Amino acid sequence: MSSSTSSSSLLLCVLVKSARIQLSDNECCSYVVLKIDNVKSTTSVVKGLTPSWEQEFYFDVPDRSAGLQIELWERGQFWDKLLGLCHIHLDRNDEHINTDFANAQDRWTTLDAELILNRQGQVTRTCHPTGHALLIRTYVELPSDLTEEESKELSEKLEILHEILDKEGRQLQDVTFDELNSLSTMHTDQP
Question: Which molecular-function annotations from GO does this UniProt entry contain (predicted)?
Answer without folding.
Answer: calmodulin binding; diacylglycerol binding; syntaxin-1 binding
